């Protein structure tokens, strides 16, 4: 083969043997395409068939991922700490949010480093078949568990608002734990089919040379099997749940609006137990409205963040004949879907803090406990202290059915022994 010279193709005047190919072992005549490939260096040959070893977008994506990682890990760890360390926060609804935070932490702590490593060095894949299975299984399990948990959370909220008499039997701690464990088991089982299609593949031998440095984690089974699984899972684990959740929250919104209208018609001055019951119902409806609003925004953000991920998968499964334009579009879709995928794991604690007074106060307590606080006493709002100390000042009628204004306007502090200290407020 040494008689072939790459200069005839407009390349430097070298022979395939000088470029590292064992051309003397190549059998038969070679075509022009083969000759062109033989005139490439090994790195150029790998780049031709596998793409860039390092993504051109690595630096901006790495900076974006780093910001998401810091915010997401701190926020989700804070969420888990708040729910675990405060008994008042251990509600069935918060158990679902705790499970969602654990799912997000798995993605950020295990999935993101693998993703960044692949962008830094797309090949060879150094973790073997076991690492490939783990990576695929992790992403599939988290994908399924997240949407199932959000759906279960929406159903729980629907029952609490639409069927309040049934909530005592459904929205219990034991029931929530059972549902969460079942959903995780279902997610793991449903992740197995796609995981089984993946493995480590290398470029086949050519020109008498092997390419162990071309190892990548990819699909090793027939492509049609992968396409079918992706299309079915997108339908079952994204489109149908999102349509169901949308219907549930529309029904919840109509119910809360109707209750608000009825309260407005029936509202009026009054005293005694009936008046207290009316106030309690209004407070309960207001709490339902605040929690539902927060969860509704969570679902909307969830859908926006996960939609590019499923578009990425569907695009890969539907396109059979790839062109240069397809590859270019898919590269950008893949990067955008990755950013939004990880963003969904970091945004939930921000939503809790912005939209939930209870979470916001609990976050403040935890950060104050581990960080500097002004003075020996930590000032809390009365609402937060009511939640943590189980005060019933605003829940029980006093002085002929009315709350004493002076008591309601008191500030509450907590000293170093977690004892409440009351102080009257006065305008500055």
Automatic annotation (TrEMBL):
Keyword Iron: no
Cellular component, GO annotation: plasma membrane
Bias (Polar residues): 416-428
Principal subcellular localisation of the protein: membrane
Location within or outside the cell: Cell membrane
Ranges annotated as spanning the membrane: 57-84, 96-117, 137-159, 179-204, 224-250, 291-309, 329-354
Domain G-protein coupled receptors family 1 profile: 75-352
Region annotation (Disordered) ranges: 393-428
Membrane topology: Multi-pass membrane protein
SUPFAM superfamilies: Family A G protein-coupled receptor-like
Tagged with keyword Disulfide bond: yes
Gene Ontology molecular function: neuromedin U receptor activity
Keyword terms, alphabetized: Cell membrane, Disulfide bond, G-protein coupled receptor, Glycoprotein, Membrane, Receptor, Transducer, Transmembrane, Transmembrane helix
Protein family (similarity comment): Belongs to the G-protein coupled receptor 1 family.
Reported function: Receptor for the neuromedin-U and neuromedin-S neuropeptides.
Protein name: G-protein coupled receptors family 1 profile domain-containing protein
Organism name: Coregonus suidteri
């Amino acid at each position: 083969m040494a008689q072939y010279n790459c200069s005839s193709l407009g390349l430097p005047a070298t022979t395939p043997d000088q470029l590292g190919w064992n051309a003397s072992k190549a059998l038969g005549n070679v075509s022009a395409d083969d000759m062109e490939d033989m005139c490439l260096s090994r790195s150029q040959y790998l780049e031709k068939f596998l793409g860039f070893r390092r993504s051109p977008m690595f630096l901006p994506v790495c900076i974006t991922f780093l910001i998401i990682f810091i915010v997401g890990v701190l926020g989700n760890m804070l969420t888990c700490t708040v729910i675990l360390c405060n008994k008042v926060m251990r509600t069935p609804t918060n158990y679902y949010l705790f499970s969602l935070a654990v799912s997000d932490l798995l993605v950020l702590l295990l999935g993101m480093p693998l993703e960044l490593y692949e962008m830094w060095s797309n090949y060879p894949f150094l973790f073997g078949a076991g690492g490939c299975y783990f990576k695929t299984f992790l992403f599939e399990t988290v994908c399924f568990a997240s949407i199932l948990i959000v759906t279960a959370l929406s159903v729980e909220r629907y029952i609490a608002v639409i069927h309040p008499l049934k909530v005592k039997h459904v929205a219990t701690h034991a029931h929530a734990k059972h549902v969460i464990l079942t959903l995780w088991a279902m997610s793991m089982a449903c992740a197995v089919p796609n995981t089984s299609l993946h493995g480590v593949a290398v470029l086949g031998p050519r020109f008498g040379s092997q390419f162990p440095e071309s190892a990548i984690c990819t699909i090793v089974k027939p492509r049609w099997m992968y396409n079918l699984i992706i299309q079915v899972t997108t339908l079952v684990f994204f489109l149908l749940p999102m349509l169901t959740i949308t219907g549930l929250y529309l029904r919840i919104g109509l119910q809360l609006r109707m209750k608000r209208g009825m309260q407005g018609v029936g509202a009026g001055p009054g005293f005694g137990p009936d008046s207290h019951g009316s106030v309690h119902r209004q407070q309960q409806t207001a709490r339902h409205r605040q929690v539902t609003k927060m969860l509704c925004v969570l679902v909307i953000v969830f859908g926006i963040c996960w939609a590019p991920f499923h578009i990425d998968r569907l695009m890969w499964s539907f396109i059979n004949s790839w062109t240069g334009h397809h590859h270019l579009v898919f590269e950008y879709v893949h990067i955008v879907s990755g950013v939004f995928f990880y963003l969904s794991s970091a945004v939930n604690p921000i939503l809790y803090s912005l939209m939930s007074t209870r979470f916001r106060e609990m976050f403040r307590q935890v950060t104050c406990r581990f960080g500097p606080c002004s003075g020996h006493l930590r000032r809390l709002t009365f609402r937060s202290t009511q939640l943590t100390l189980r005060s019933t000042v605003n829940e029980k009628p006093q002085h002929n059915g009315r709350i004493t204004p002076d008591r309601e306007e008191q500030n509450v502090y907590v000293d170093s022994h977690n004892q409440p200290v009351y102080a009257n407020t006065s305008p500055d």
